[in-house]
Structure formats: C-alpha cells, structure tokens
Design goal:
Distance between the termini: 72 Å
Order of helices and strands: EEEEEHH
Largest sheet: 3 strands, antiparallel
Mean pLDDT: 79
Strand content: 25-35%
Strand order of the largest sheet: 3-4-5
Shape: elongated
Number of domains: 1
Length: about 110
C-alpha cells in the first residue's frame, strides 16, 4: 500500500530534511568551502560555494548547523520568518522602534 510518505522513504527511513516543521529557529547563512585537495581551485583561494546553512542554538546553548539544499532555501526562510513572528521577535523590534521615537519626541 502506498501512503503520502512512501515517495520519501529510503532504506526504511525518511530522507533527512524532506518534511519541514511549520517553524524553525535560527537564521540562514551562506558559506564557501575549501575541499582540501592540493590541485583544486580552492587551494588557490577560489572557494566552492556558496552553500546555504541554517544556524541555531540548541537547548544547551551549543551552536548547530544544518545544510539546506538550494531548492529548499525558500521554504526554510518562510519557516524561520514564521518562528520569529510567533516568538515575538518582530514585536520586540517594533517596541524598540516605538521607544526610540518616544525619546526623540521628548528630546525635541
């Protein structure tokens, strides 16, 4: 019998990163890499990339990193933005802007 996950199965497990949670912590960042081969172009400074990574801190405060495929960058970006809105990040930014404006008004 075929279910909605059967297309994503490989060796009895779901492929990593196929199903996204609705919200993700962290931020997306670009990185360039050096492979380490002596005769590669990156040995002369022309690095491979850019590659997208999601970075976040786990419950213990340790920084984590996850590779994000190019075709998934937009989905990750949306999920991270949703988390920021729900967590109050945008509310804190708005309150900080209001406080700055109030200070400017009182200083005039």
């Amino acid at each position: 019998m075929r279910n909605k996950f059967s297309d994503f199965r490989r060796n009895g497990r779901l492929k990593f990163g196929v199903l996204l949670p609705k919200m993700l912590l962290g931020s997306l960042q670009l990185e360039w890499k050096q492979c380490g081969r002596d005769r590669c172009r990156c040995a002369a400074g022309d690095l491979h990339g850019p590659y997208w990574y999601r970075r976040w801190r786990d419950e213990t405060g340790k920084q984590r990193k996850q590779y994000v495929r190019l075709d998934r960058v937009e989905q990750f970006s949306i999920a991270i933005a949703q988390q920021r809105v729900i967590s109050g990040w945008s509310v804190r930014q708005a309150l900080a802007k209001i406080r700055r404006m109030e200070k400017e008004l009182h200083n005039v």
